[in-house]
Amino acid sequence: MANNPQTPAEAWETLMAGNARFVDSNSSHPNQDAARRTSLLSTQHPFAVIFGCSDSRLAAEIIFDLGLGDAFVVRTAGHVIDNTVLGSLEYSVDYLNVPLIVVLGHDNCGAVTATQDAVATGNMPAGFIRDLVERITPSVLTSLRKDQNSGISDMITEHVKQTAARLVENSPIIASAVARQRTAVVGLTYRLSDGRADLVYSNGSLGA
């Protein structure tokens, strides 16, 4: 990437172009050489912050064909929000001026599946896994309220939407950046079978 994307629209276009290359098995592996590494010694200017699930099959830099310094990445199981996550995302927006925030979910998500099981049976998992389930439960319940027959894919999509919306609702810093059209927030669901990331939520201008 010769020119670092500066606007939400440019960042979005660059991200999707990288995913298209990955899907087509034509990844270019940009910004991964010694020169790029050296150029980042004292500064960084990522064009996207990707808040995704910790699942080992969801490596953001790979599926969007990115390199060093391109993405500021935050990951938790089930892309669950806490204060540390919000602080990390706010840092990327307020200090690094990142123009695009991406919430990245995926099919067959274990955290959402565990929550679906807990809601259906009333049996909560042990340890701090329970905390994950409790934070995902509102998304699962919202999906069921919309359609009592909703399946795990519907719940995962709803959870991505709910997570992305909450970032704007809970963070005045992110909300202000979106309102000023300096940053956009998108929600994507990733398909493990073909590697494609599909847009399911957006807040902010992605137009040219």
From TrEMBL:
<feature type="binding site">
    <location>
        <position position="55"/>
    </location>
    <ligand>
        <name>Zn(2+)</name>
    </ligand>
</feature>
<keyword id="KW-0862">Zinc</keyword>
<feature type="binding site">
    <location>
        <position position="109"/>
    </location>
    <ligand>
        <name>Zn(2+)</name>
    </ligand>
</feature>
<comment type="function">
    <text>Catalyzes the reversible hydration of carbon dioxide to form bicarbonate.</text>
</comment>
<feature type="binding site">
    <location>
        <position position="106"/>
    </location>
    <ligand>
        <name>Zn(2+)</name>
    </ligand>
</feature>
<keyword id="KW-0479">Metal-binding</keyword>
<dbReference type="GO" id="GO:0004089">
    <property type="term" value="F:carbonate dehydratase activity"/>
</dbReference>
<keyword id="KW-0456">Lyase</keyword>
<protein>
    <recommendedName>
        <fullName>carbonic anhydrase</fullName>
        <ecNumber>4.2.1.1</ecNumber>
    </recommendedName>
</protein>
<dbReference type="GO" id="GO:0015976">
    <property type="term" value="P:carbon utilization"/>
</dbReference>
<dbReference type="InterPro" id="IPR001765">
    <property type="entry name" value="Carbonic_anhydrase"/>
</dbReference>
<dbReference type="InterPro" id="IPR036874">
    <property type="entry name" value="Carbonic_anhydrase_sf"/>
</dbReference>
<feature type="binding site">
    <location>
        <position position="53"/>
    </location>
    <ligand>
        <name>Zn(2+)</name>
    </ligand>
</feature>
<dbReference type="GO" id="GO:0008270">
    <property type="term" value="F:zinc ion binding"/>
</dbReference>
<dbReference type="InterPro" id="IPR015892">
    <property type="entry name" value="Carbonic_anhydrase_CS"/>
</dbReference>
<comment type="similarity">
    <text>Belongs to the beta-class carbonic anhydrase family.</text>
</comment>
<dbReference type="Pfam" id="PF00484">
    <property type="entry name" value="Pro_CA"/>
</dbReference>
